[in-house]
Amino acid sequence: MTEKFYITTPIYYVNARPHIGHTYTTIACDAIARRKRMLGVNTFFLTGTDEHGQKIERAAEAAGKTPQQLTDEVSSEFRALWDRMGITYDDFIRTTSERHKRGVQALWRRIRDNGYIYKGHYTGQYCVFDELYVDAAGPGAPCPECGRPTETVKEENYFFKLSAFQQKLLDLYAGHPEFIRPETRRNEVISFVRSGLRDLSISRSTFSWGIPVPDDPKHVIYVWMDALSNYITALGYGSEDTRLYDQFWPADVHMIGKEIVRFHCVYWPAFLMAAGLPLPKGIVAHGWLLFEESKMSKSRGNIVRSETILDVLGQDALRYFLLREIVFGQDGSFSFDALVQRYNAELANGLGNLASRTLTMITRYFQGEVPYPSPAAARHAADDAIATLATRTIAEFNALFDQYQFSRALETAWGLVAAVDKYIVENEPWSLGEKQDEQSRARLATVLYTSAEALRIVTALAHAVIPLATAKIWSQLGLGDISKFDLSKLKWGQLKLGTRLGKVDPVFPRSDKSAIERMQNMEDQGRPLATAVAVATESQPQSAPNPQVTTQASAATPATVPDGKIGIDDFAKVDMRVGQVKVAEKVKGAEKLLRLEVDLGSEVRQVVAGIAEAYAPETLIGRKVVIVANLVPRKLRGLESNGMIVAASAEGGRPVLATFAEDVPVGTRLK
Ligand code: ME8
Q1: Which residue, of 22, 128, 355, 643, has the fewest CB within 10 Å?
Q2: Residues 603-657: pLDDT tens digits?
Q3: Are 608 and 635 in contact (CB under 8 A)?
Q4: pLDDT tens digits, residue range 387-401?
Q5: Rounded to 5 degrees, what are φ and ψ at 259?
Q6: What atom in ligand 1 is closest to the CA of residue 264?
Q7: C-alpha count within 13 angstroms, C-beta hemisphere, residue 336
Q8: pTM confidence score
Q9: Residues enclosing ligand 1, CB less than 6 A?
């Protein structure tokens, strides 16, 4: 029987467009799946979209769409992106599909019939952003995960007897250390479970965008129970045709980001235990991709889209960079500079250059046929050193890759690239090629054979990570279709003498500095404005012609712009910064005005703001606010106001200062 392997990505929420954070997990899984297939393993790779829940319902409402419209649109965007990137998923599951709904309901019934679901009342806090019950918090308390305010939920719910699984889960973690990787995540989960598990509310009745609870359709199933089940419903669990389920379940790896560890390592195995189903073999949690020092996320708006990189440098560049740059399991920063730097150094000048110089010289000096290495007498120690290093590289790469240490695996393979480059420089095949004596021809043959064989080995190893370029190099080496190669047999010396090379073409054209700028511009154009339209609350002097309420748009845009829209350039003119209030006091004789001194990082500004009726001065000290920093100064009650504080002001309501759910350094620009 052939070995099987089942790997999954999280299913992504459809409340926002895909960004390279999602791409990161997906390409990691894709690289693993490709490699398994190359090793002859019967592989199933699942991805998809998570489409139910209050968060999606609200996102649809905000976008003026029905939830189904929004989910259809965004789900197809994810799928189209994966198709464009050549992601080799075997199935794409949507939680709004009939097959999924049926499977989730079957799972519910099974857990219920086994006695692990009961009805009760839930009164407590809920974070819609994380779709998480926050049992311990009081009304209005922030979510411990994301810091956003939680909402109070008072509902009759169905509960899952999670408390019954505390010891079983601890036994699972103890008996299977490989169940949660890396170790740091495992320790976090163990201490969370040790601290005690309460029963979990698993239905909601105050909104309807979800899968109805079997036999009680007033309730919809808790979105995480719905979502986690995708890993089995996609295989046909709960349907008539369970062949895939029988063949592939349990999963070998659920690959996830570190923020959803609890759902996967606590709730999911508990649901499966309650249903009497086999548990996944392992959950692997990676770290976050950071951009400008904070987690890249749709809510922060600091995202980078994959499309930009695909357009400018192509999919191999993105795949290579993410897997090489970030130490898997840890957080890592994304920057266009680092991307282009690695692309040039390691792909264009590294592998690409090795391929083109080796293959060009074989074409030139041996009419495009892999030459015979020279007899033992003309062999040098350097030739054997490359062969030995290549053999060691295969073993090390395999071991590291199989432990998800992609970065170190690639580093090892590129160590071989560098060694061969050095070997070529030291042996000067171009000089040997100018000579016709037998000795020089023999040396040349050995040097080029050795280089080509090492190139073949790196190409085979790297194929799972950079599939397009390696497929080209493979066929330029005259080896045909790389996907037919049996990677489990890879070893030194398989390159057959006399193999006819294909047409030699460069695989990684060098990129110049302008690529960075181009990508940055593309992102600036495409990135949704991170900030909502802010409203100025500053009192205007009697004589000023401006209206009481100023929007960003009107502050920056000439009146001639059609239909009230502004271009990104206009928006960019508004310099909004995070400031911290150092001093706040009432302005004598002006009931509405406060005089503030606000630290903007580089300077402290005096700002006079019309917020005295809403905020007592002492409550503002130390608070972070948003300041429009490049307004022309003006005088209010004789005081110079050097900037404007941003707040939302409902008609007739009190102004509410703009704030951040997460901490932001003073001086940070809003864009
Ligand atoms: O959590 N860095 O969906 P989601 C690294 N629907 N990975 C990132 C990332 C970043 N900055 N941003 C996103 C959900 N990801 C649920 C999952 S599964 C049954 C349900 C990746 O759209 C990473 O894999 O918020 C993370 O766990 C996932 O996208 C979250 O995607």
Answers
A1: 128
A2: 888 899 989 888 888 888 888 999 998 887 787 787 888 899 998 877 667 888 9
A3: no
A4: 999 999 999 999 999
A5: -75, -10
A6: 19
A7: 23
A8: 0.80
A9: 10-13, 21-22, 24-25, 50, 227-228, 230, 256-257, 259-260, 288-289, 295-297
